[in-house]
Structures are given as structure tokens and as C-alpha cells.
């Protein structure tokens, strides 16, 4: 009886040990992948679709340090896109913003910089003072901006996230996850790719304009991927004693866009090495299948009561789908167009969509829009059209 019990215990221990060894692994198409990362959490995501390629404790809530500024940047770019602010707007630095400490560009109270310069300081030098100055400019106060950050986080499905400030300095309850960082990073680079103008800049300058005069201040990118990694497009580093070393790294090669995030790395070298390791794994094992290009024609739709009889159907956005290399897969499309559209309507109005699938599973869809505006035909025009058809008959 004793021997049987010992044997059962031994088997149980082996099973437990086996499970624990693979608890942070990813199962990809039946294959166990273990990258052996030292960071507390990590994720590798394809940017176009949001597909997760690799993850390790990706929903663990941790302090993000300056990676917080990905959301700050996202709200800046969205405010510019919405017309609420302009790049050449003048931002005045408050005493609160100037006193942030940590990584900064040493803005002084009442100093003025443009929105573009502030955004450059945030993107390149991870400037806390510039981040808070922009938060106050957009949100009326840093707290007002933080409320906008948390609202946007919920809209993006960032359910592990609570922001307390706009720059990432340690604060009780200020936390997010590798998964959520990937979500907001993806949103930024996918819809505001112009951010790479700054996130790929290695060195630059700004000019301080104060009562003491003008002085030039040098900026150096905190993200070494810009120099070290082929195809790097950004994105944001972070460090505090509480968070340790964090990084959201983005890169693109051959049409494949990846977001790699690590949190809680033990040192700076490890965070860069492990993000590059994640990116290497993605580029080595995945490729991308692309749908029709944006702006290409895919049919036409009949127009009812319009000056034109038909309008061309145009693809609004290109769909991309990541697939494993070495596996033959085909991107199938189904074009669904309205049978008829009634005038008047504007250029860009949706008149259908393209649905893409692989092996019967939907992997993406794109709106199909009208190539031009069509006005409603008046009575005289209708009579003239009927007369022309009668003569032709």
C-alpha cells in the first residue's frame, strides 16, 4: 500500500512539474514555444489585426512608468486629427508641469513651446514636463486629461488599466498590463503612423525661450531599438524603481507590423534584448497576406434618382492577415455591394464591404465606398435623360 502511495505521489509531482515548466509558453498550431524571457510579463501582437502571437503573463497588472506616454501621445494625435488643437498652437508651461522631475527637458514656468515641439520632447526624450504641459493644454488640467485617458482605455478594451497621471511617475493604483500597452500602441501606430516622424528620430534639439534668452537643448531618443533593430518604428521606454524596465517596441518588415511589449525587466539591456527576441520570433515565423489595396476599384453600384446612373465602388482600407510561414493558406474575399443607392450622396459613403477569410474563418473586412459624390437629378434632367434613351431606341 505504501509503495502504491509513493508511486502515485511521484506521478502527481511529475505532472505538476510538467505543467509549471510550460505555464508561460504559447501553443501555436500544436507547437510549444518557450522564449525563456526574464521580464515579468510580455506580449507580441500583430498590429493590423491585433492577433496575439506570443504572451507571457500578459494580463498581470504592473506599473508602466513612462510607457504611460503612449496613451498621452495617442490623445494628442487624436486631438490634432479632430481639429481640437493644431501643431503650431502655443502651449504655456505651468509651475506644476515644470516641477515634474524624472526624465524631462527642463521646461520653465511660463515658457512657451508649440504642440509639435512638446510632442517631439515626449516622443524622443520621454519628457515628463512636456507630457503634463500637453495634458493640461488638452484636458484643462492634468486630472481632466487623466479622465480622458481612462475613458479612451475602456474604449480600446484596456480592462487591466487605471491611469493616475499623464507621464507615468509612480503613483498608487497607476497600473496596466503588457496586453493593454500593446492595444494602445497598436492604436497609435495603426491610425497615426505620422508619430514615427518622432519615434524614429535618434537625436534632435529644441530651443528654450525664456526671460533669460534662448538656449538650445539636445534630445536623444531613449529607445535604442531605433539604432539597433532593422525596421524599428518606435515606440516608448519606461523605468522607475517600482516598475523596473519596460518597453513597447514596434517594427515593420515586408508589410508585417509587430508590437512587442515587456514589463518588469531586471535591467535596460534585458528589456531591449527581449523585445528584439520577440520581434525576431514574429518576423521569422509569420508573414502577411494582403487584401485589395485601399483606393482600388472592386465594382460599381446602380444609382437611383441621380445625375449619374452608376458609381464606382472603391476599397476604403487594405486588410492584412498574419499567417504562419510554411503553411499554404489563401486569403479569400467576398464582395458584398448594395444593389442600388439613392442620390444624393457624398464621396466616401459606404456602399458595401469586402469580407476576407482563411479556411472559412473571417480574418478581416473592409468598407467599400463611393468613388464620387452624386447629386439628385431634377425634373428637367430626368426628361432629358428619357428623351436621349427614346432617341437611341
TL;DR of this structure?
This protein has 393 residues and is an alpha+beta fold. It has helices at residues 2-21, 69-81, 95-98, 115-125, 128-139, 142-155, 178-191, 196-199, 225-228, 268-285, 379-392, and strands spanning 26-28, 31-33, 41-46, 52-56, 90-92, 112-114, 203-210, 213-220, 232-240, 244-253, 256-265, 286-290, 297-304, 310-315, 320-324, 332-337, 340-342, 350-358, 361-370. The protein is 33% helix and 31% strand.
Counted up, domains total 2
Mean pLDDT: 90
State the CATH class of the largest domain: Alpha Beta
Tally of separate helices:
11
Unreliable parts? 1-30
Q: How much β-strand is present in the residues?
A: 25-35%
Compute the CA-based radius of gyration. 26 Å
CATH superfamily of the largest domain: DD-peptidase/beta-lactamase superfamily
**Structural class determined from secondary elements:** alpha+beta
What is the H-and-E element order?
HEEEEHEHEHHHHHEEHEEEHEEEEEEEEH
Reported for the largest beta sheet, the result is: 6 strands, mixed
- Architecture of the largest domain in CATH? 3-Layer(aba) Sandwich
Strand order of the largest sheet: 16-18-19-14-13-17
- The CATH topology of the largest domain turns out to be Beta-lactamase
Name the overall outline: globular
Overall helicity:
25-40%
End-to-end separation in angstroms reads 101 Å
How many β-strand runs? 19
Amino acid at each position: 500500500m505504501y509503495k502504491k502511495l509513493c508511486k502515485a505521489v511521484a506521478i502527481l509531482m511529475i505532472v505538476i512539474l510538467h505543467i509549471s515548466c510550460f505555464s508561460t509558453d504559447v501553443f501555436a498550431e500544436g507547437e510549444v514555444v518557450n522564449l525563456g524571457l526574464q521580464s515579468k510579463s510580455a506580449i507580441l501582437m500583430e498590429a493590423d489585426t491585433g492577433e496575439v502571437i506570443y504572451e507571457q503573463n500578459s494580463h498581470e497588472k504592473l506599473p508602466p512608468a513612462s510607457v504611460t506616454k503612449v496613451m498621452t501621445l495617442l490623445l494628442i494625435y487624436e486631438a490634432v486629427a479632430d481639429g481640437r488643437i493644431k501643431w503650431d498652437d502655443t502651449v504655456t508651461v505651468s509651475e506644476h508641469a515644470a516641477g515634474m522631475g524624472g526624465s524631462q527637458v527642463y521646461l520653465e514656468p511660463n515658457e512657451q513651446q508649440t504642440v509639435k515641439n512638446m510632442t517631439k520632447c515626449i516622443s524622443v526624450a520621454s519628457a515628463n514636463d512636456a507630457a503634463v504641459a500637453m495634458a493640461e493644454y488638452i484636458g484643462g488640467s492634468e486630472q481632466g486629461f487623466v479622465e480622458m485617458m481612462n475613458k479612451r482605455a475602456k474604449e480600446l478594451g484596456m480592462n487591466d488599466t487605471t491611469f493616475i497621471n499623464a507621464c507615468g511617475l509612480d503613483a498608487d493604483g497607476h497600473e496596466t498590463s503588457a496586453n493593454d500597452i500593446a492595444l494602445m500602441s497598436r492604436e497609435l501606430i495603426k491610425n497615426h503612423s505620422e508619430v514615427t516622424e518622432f519615434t524614429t528620430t535618434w537625436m534632435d534639439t529644441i530651443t528654450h525661450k525664456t526671460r533669460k534668452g534662448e538656449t538650445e537643448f539636445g534630445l536623444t531618443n531613449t529607445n535604442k531599438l531605433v539604432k539597433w533593430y532593422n525596421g524599428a518604428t518606435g515606440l516608448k521606454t519606461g523605468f522607475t524603481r517600482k516598475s523596473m524596465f519596460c518597453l513597447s517596441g514596434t517594427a515593420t518588415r515586408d508589410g508585417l507590423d509587430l508590437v512587442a511589449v515587456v514589463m518588469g525587466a531586471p535591467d535596460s539591456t534585458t528589456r531591449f534584448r527581449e523585445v528584439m527576441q520577440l520581434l525576431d520570433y514574429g518576423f521569422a515565423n509569420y508573414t502577411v497576406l494582403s487584401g485589395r489595396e485601399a483606393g482600388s476599384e472592386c465594382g460599381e453600384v446602380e444609382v437611383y434618382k441621380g445625375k449619374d446612373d452608376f458609381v464606382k465602388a472603391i476599397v476604403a482600407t487594405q486588410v492584412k492577415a498574419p499567417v504562419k510561414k510554411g503553411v499554404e493558406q489563401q486569403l479569400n474575399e467576398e464582395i458584398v455591394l448594395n444593389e442600388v443607392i439613392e442620390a444624393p450622396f457624398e464621396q466616401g459613403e459606404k456602399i458595401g464591404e469586402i469580407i476576407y477569410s482563411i479556411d472559412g474563418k473571417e480574418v478581416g473586412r473592409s468598407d467599400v465606398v463611393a468613388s464620387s459624390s452624386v447629386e439628385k437629378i431634377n425634373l428637367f434632367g430626368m426628361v432629358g435623360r428619357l428623351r436621349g434613351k427614346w432617341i437611341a431606341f
